[in-house]
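Sequence only, no structure available. Ideas?
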Amino acid sequence: MINIISYILITSGVILLIYNYFIMPKNKNYPHKKNIGDKYCILIPARDESNVIERLLISIEKQTRKINSHDVYIIVENKNDKTVEIVNNHNMNIVFRKDLSKEAKGYALNDAVKEILNKNTHYDAYFIFDADNILDKNFIKEMEKTINEGYDTAIGYRNTENSNTLISAASSLTFSMINTLFNSRKNKYTNNLTISGTGYYISGYLLEKWQGFPFHELTEDYELTLYSTLNDLTCFYNKKAIFYDEQPNNLKKSIIQRTRWVKGYLDSRKKFVKKIKQSITKNDKNFASKTNEVIGIKPYLLIIFGLILFIINSSSINIFLLKLIIALLIIYIILLIFTYIMIKKEKNLNMTNKMKIKVLFYNPIFLASYLWCLIKALTTKNLKWKKIKHGD
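Reply:
I predicted one. Tokens follow.
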């Protein structure tokens, strides 16, 4: 009986995966109007980021589509931060946090947006970057094309500047998975994209409507993704708008970062998924995106629980170990093939061929470690935002 239940769980998970990524119908959620404005600003949360911030500021100054330095806002916590001096040297704006008890990137962005709106300053689009980002010289120029098409939000092509360790290389493939495999496909079907961290814009009319930046979970980007899905906002993945960022270069940093992502993912879903499910109608123009988010990671959990049941239902320790080894081997091979597909599809990976071979065999283990991050996220009380130092 237990074996039958395990087979049902695994089969159900596989069916949901196939439906979510191969059978899901096309949306009819298109941009509703062309944008006619061309005034943009840039927001950069940068607490104690003096090690890396100047590279980003220089890349902003070198843009082919110029952004006035007075339209760049760097958010810090105190006047003693060395970042302040660097920003002043580039004649850009400093925004000081208002309430340091609120520890999340979303609160920093909220402080900056409110300060801008309180000055009655209007921007047609707000670009959001992390301090460790570096922009290709045509990033804004390429994104402007998407803005002019009327998309509410859009993300650029995220590459990695430090794929020189197995951890950073595997971490960079996480964004290959999100963008090159999933968001590229969602683009074709006008689905809402998964907004991931940085290198994106939000239309100015939305921030004026919200009177701030209202997403404050540990993953404010995924919270924005769910809001966009619920409210039928239009999203686009612009592969030609390229930027680079820095990935964690050791396992400890990576676990901290990914545990935060998993916790933020779960908390954001608590806020939005029920509302999204209730909002689905028969002729919903955003049916595919909403259904995709309602399904979420359920297919993977069904497969994992099914495998656990299958393994523990053993008549002896030898059978248990045999089933465990076979299951782990099958999972490893599937993830190995998945990684190979990602690497082949990614034409512009900032990674040596030697590292590509190494990460091909390591990435399945890296992906499997998300299960440990999930356990930590579920069992750690009061999990808070922790700074991951850049530029080490």
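Residues 2-24+272-379 form one domain.
Hope that gets you unstuck.
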